[in-house]
Predict the structure of Phospholipid scramblase.
Amino acid sequence: MAGRVNPAFMQQQQQQPENWMPKPSGGSDCPPGLEYLTQLDQVLVKQKKEFFEMVTGWETKNKYVVRNSMGQQIYYAKEHSDNCQRQCCGNQRAFEMTVEDNTGQEVIHISRPYKCMCYGQCFSCSKCCFDTVTVEAPPGRVAGKVKQIYGCCEAKYKIEDKDGDTVLATAPGDDIPFKLVTKDREHEIGRVSKQWSNLLQEYFTDADNFGITFPKDLHLDAKATIIGACFLIDFMFFERSGNNRRH
């Protein structure tokens, strides 16, 4: 059984100051910017609260910080999207996500095109409705893709490498967690888990927190792609759709 993120640990990290993790030395084959991931088997993805969104209900661009188990920040991520799509298309909107290191250098780029969901998850049976995100690390070099696959009323995704070969998959967990499993779905190797915040924050904002676990020796491209999968899960299941939250 893969390790789970301790909820107490995640809550503690939310209170930590934003100190940055020192950049490790990577090997010659390490993609620039992914050196931070070489030593990690879990990360916390924390969405930054938007006071303006809380008081007005106006959907703003998402921003996130990514931290290690010591509470040190390793990345800062920000959404780039069309304002009209954010207000009218909600969680189905297209977006570009730039992920920067402590120097402000973009090290990961995540792209998601607009996809129409036909009358909810259960009726989105056509491949043209399936969600896809492309993860580049560094920008211009494809690290992998996250693709939705048909699962009737269950949300299922596969994680592909740069060559389009399936390397991992997701499976629904016992609660909100998405299990990360081998491509044959026989073994769990990690999780993407939601950390529930206080009730006012959950009701009034889209500010969500996630814990990700994966093997320390997992390929760096796969780790970066899993982070991209976490952003997609946040958009698909915890963003407002119209005027309502989608849980």
Summary: The chain is about 20% helix and 30% strand. Residues 32-244 form a domain with the Porin fold (CATH 2.40.160.200). The longest helix spans residues 220-238.
